[in-house]
Design a protein that fits this description.
The complex is a heterodimer of chains A (about 240) and B (about 270). Chain A is of the alpha+beta class and about 240 residues long. Chain A has three helices and eleven strands. Chain A has one domain: Bactericidal permeability-increasing protein, domain 1. In chain A, strands 2, 3, 4, 5, 6, 7, 8 and 9 form an eight-stranded mixed sheet that branches. Chain A has a three-stranded antiparallel sheet with strand order 1-11-10. In chain B, β15 and β16 form a beta hairpin. In chain B, about 30% of the residues are buried. Chain B has one domain. In chain B, α2 crosses α3. Chain B is an alpha+beta fold and about 270 residues long. The chains are: A alpha+beta (about 240), B alpha+beta (about 270). Chains A and B meet through β1, α1 and β9 of A and β1, α1, β14, β15 and β16 of B. β1 of chain A pairs antiparallel with β1 of chain B, so a sheet runs across the interface.
């Protein structure tokens, strides 16, 4: 069968190239993956997007920061193993990433003198710090006592046609999310709901223009796709 | 296997080359040479129009009936003496009684050399085979169709009329020359015969052939660092990927012949 089939133009992009495009986007604009309140993100810049604190009575606003690592995509069929709870069906992609969540845990109710011997300090919870605890210490901010955790995250989803600056673009929609190594189950469910919403929101900001899928060759007005074939995205259409 | 493939079928290739050829714009040249017996200085310009495209695996794009509309402005330098008879009126003397001998002057007419501006134009058609060239030049990936060999030009039906028109233009341009009146019609015929259709096409061919054979048809041109997204603000800088390799070929993927570009990229 011809590549163009009944159309005039054919474009296909292997998953390696799609990951290169997503990586380039997330590397040039890391703020698409990083969101936080002013104690962590004093101002929106290339690296981070500032968001409001979480309002809660008596706290003055809970300071927080969420950052995803550059997502890795696997197009059907399955090459990257998924948690057993997820299956990758025809037309779907899977995405794996790691999400780091931080909150500021102010120390004003504690004896700060005790903290001098512990570089990580007391998080204010029941769990003392370990030397390799994940911390948000790579960016100057006003967070007094940041407490962080990192969670591995897997999801499956499907492609959506969208636009970017009026031009056709490729978007990503999430169908299901699964966290790794979180227990008990009800906590996992809550976090999957919470982080799943964040991931969906983040992925809506990651759109790849169709012009990039063809690296500027010819022109393409899609009439078929973009859709997922075996380990690649393809589209057909007219000049 | 390449990471990115973009392909067009033959119909799309025809439409694509319509745009490519239209974007080439006019070409021009000037110089001096001989047209038949005349010295001529000229300027010639031409504009290409696409013909019909045939994709031939593994690497040929054939364009049949590629058309070049050309126009020429030329100044012919011609010695009228080469075309007109010499006129010598001998001296005649008459003896007149009571007056003596009276003689008329001897008259020799020397025809001048004149410069005659002429303008004319027509079209030619040619069938060309384009080979595919892929190169990274100065940070730009380029795929071009390059004409293989020297195309044979088919001149349009107006060529004969052009030759006759040049003869008439010459005759009109020298009408001011004293005593030439009776010879103008013959001059036009003589000039036409001296140039001839073969002479005109033989003169034009080497001048306008490079307009076709020297043309590089741009098929793909993108910077090595391909811009995925432009910068939209200070916190949303441009996004680029590196194009590591580009390929181009004509493939037969039944039932179609397709022009296929391939690329490998890295973040």
């Amino acid at each position: 069968m011809s590549l163009t089939d009944t159309s005039e133009v054919f474009v296909s992009v292997e998953e390696t190239a799609l990951n290169d495009l997503v990586t380039a986007l997330c590397t040039a604009r890391p703020r698409l993956l990083s969101y936080g309140s002013p104690a962590f993100v004093p101002v929106s810049d290339v690296g981070d997007t500032q968001m409001p604190p979480i309002l809660f009575p008596g706290t003055g606003g809970i300071q927080w920061h969420v950052r995803f690592s550059v997502p890795h995509l696997d197009l059907f069929d399955e090459d990257a193993p998924l948690p057993s709870q997820l299956t990758l069906g025809p037309g779907q992609f899977s995405v794996s990433t790691k999400v780091q969540i931080c909150v500021d845990c102010p120390k004003d109710r504690h004896n700060q003198k005790d903290d001098l011997h512990d570089p990580h300090g007391d998080h204010g919870g029941d769990h003392p710090n370990e030397p390799d605890d994940p911390r948000w210490d790579d960016k100057p901010g006003k967070a007094q006592n940041p407490v962080c955790t990192a969670i591995e995250l897997y999801a499956v989803g499907h492609l959506v046609g969208t636009t970017l600056d009026g031009q056709p673009a490729l978007g990503f929609a999430v169908d299901a999310v699964e966290l790794v190594d979180v227990s008990p189950d009800d906590l996992e469910s809550v976090l999957e709901c919470l982080i799943g919403q964040m991931l969906r929101a983040v992925l809506t900001t990651i759109r790849v223009p169709v012009s990039a899928l063809r690296v500027g060759a010819f022109t393409l007005t899609p009439t078929v796709g973009p859709l997922i074939d075996i380990d690649r995205v393809l589209a057909r259409g007219n000049l | 296997m390449s990471e990115i493939i973009a392909a067009i079928d033959e119909g799309a290739a025809n439409d694509f080359l319509d745009t490519v050829v239209a974007g080439l714009g006019p070409q021009s040249t000037s110089g001096s040479s001989s047209l038949g017996p005349f010295a001529v200085s000229y300027s010639v310009s031409g504009t290409l129009s696409n013909g019909s495209v045939d994709l031939i695996p593994p690497g040929t794009i054939r364009i049949a009936d590629l058309r070049l509309d050309w126009s020429a402005s030329a100044t012919l330098s011609l010695d009228l003496g080469d075309f007109l008879p010499e006129i010598h009126i001998p001296q005649v003397c008459i003896d007149i009684p009571c007056v003596g001998t009276v003689c008329t002057p001897r008259i020799d007419i020397t025809w001048p050399t004149v410069s005659v501006p002429v303008s004319f134009g027509d079209f030619v058609r040619a069938t060309v085979d384009l080979g595919l060239s892929v190169a990274l030049v100065g940070g730009m990936w380029k795929v071009e169709g390059i004409v293989q060999g020297v195309p044979s030009l088919a001149f349009g039906p107006g060529t004969a009329a052009i030759v006759a028109g040049i003869g008439l233009a010459v005759a009109a341009a020298v009408a001011w020359v004293p005593l030439i009146g009776p010879f103008l019609a013959g001059l036009a015929i003589a000039v036409t015969a001296a140039i001839g259709i073969a002479g005109l096409t033989g003169w034009l061919g080497p001048i306008i052939t490079p307009f076709i054979s020297g043309t590089r048809f741009p098929i793909y041109e993108q910077p090595e660092w391909f811009e995925v997204l432009p910068a939209t603000s200070a916190i949303d800088p441009a996004v680029s990927v590196h194009i590591d390799a580009i390929g181009a070929e004509v493939q037969h993927n039944a039932p179609e012949d397709e022009l296929v570009l391939s690329a490998d990229i890295s973040a």
